[in-house]
Amino acid sequence: MRQLGADPDFIDMVADELLPAVTEDLPSRPAAFGTVLAHSASTWWRPGMTALPGPPDEGAETWLYEQAAAAPVGDVCIRMDVGSNEGAMVDDLLRLHALIDGLADTLAPVA
């Protein structure tokens, strides 16, 4: 079985083929794409890594955390889960949740 999670070919296929095909079929529902779902996400991964997790650098945050911290705050629903026995990914996700929760507090209330 071929793994495509962070493969540039997979990302290109999603952006260049899948999303245009779906949006063509659903032109009246642009809000249908405002959700991120990630279950058992490989929070340890960063560009240039192999498919095997390595220990993080001392005091460094994950690439995913860095991306979330640098991204503009927007109206997006995020659902991420990891199992309680998934090692460092549990702590990674707890830190990411705290970051995103703090960023969400900066959004204007919905009228």
TrEMBL record:
> By what name is this protein known?
Condensation domain-containing protein
| Species name | Streptomyces endophyticus
Q: Which domain of life is it from?
A: Bacteria
InterPro entries given for it?
AB_hydrolase_fold
Query: Cross-referenced Gene3D superfamilies, in alphabetical order?
Result: alpha/beta hydrolase
